[in-house]
Amino acid sequence: MKPYSTFSIVGYDPTNEDLGIAVQSKFFAVGSVVPWAEAGIGAIATQSWANTTYGPRGLELLKIGLSTQQALNHLIEDDPDSKTRQVGLINAQGNVANYTGEECHEWAGAYAGKYYSAQGNLLTGEEVVKEMGLAFEKTDGELADKLVAALVAGQKSGGDKRGQQSAALLVVRQKGGYGGFNDRYIDLRVDDAEKPIQELDRLLKIHKQLIPR
Fold it and tell me: For the whole prediction, is pTM greater than 0.70?
């Protein structure tokens, strides 16, 4: 199996307690694998030969009161293939933790700041995650705007070595879903496209026009 290049960002908005993830990858339907989140608990991006149990297990660990670093430590310790994994976590207080296994394909690493963590593997270089973080910090608007702006900046600064294919955006908010029945405030996916980040941004604009604010 060929390695897949991915970059993502997890974030938190203290003004309304939104939590979310945005991700882009040279991988079909990345939104079905990488992003996991629960309102009032946290958000997790699991990637690089992703272990999808990191999502639900990580949220459960945060739910019982573990810190992001403690939850991350548990996930890694219980995984015999942790050296190939990459993950970013943020909790409902905005505290972050991230991990890049030593066997992730270069360039691989993370860049974290206040209320966010950007991580990626098989990238053109460290500037990708740094520019993602800077874009998150300087972008106005809701959390979704900041997360998508981070993807745009990451791609502009080099992005994936292997190219683009899919992207996704997940933002959770208490009773923020359709009819207030769940927490999926924004759940948008571009499963296969030449320019998935551009398409994701277009879908977000449509979402803003249709959803009452």
Answer: yes
At residue 213, the pLDDT reads 54
- Write down the H helix ranges in 78-140: 127-138
Take residue 84 and report the two structure tokens written for it: 């190939």
CATH of region 6-210, choose from 3.40.50.720, 3.30.300.30, 2.30.30.100, 3.60.20.10: 3.60.20.10
pLDDT digits (tens, 9 = 90+) for 14-34: 999 999 999 999 999 999 999
Buried b / exposed e over 59-95, threshold 16 CB at 10 Å, is bebbeeebebeebbeebbeebeebebbbbbbbbbebb
Contact 58, 21 (CB under 8 A): no
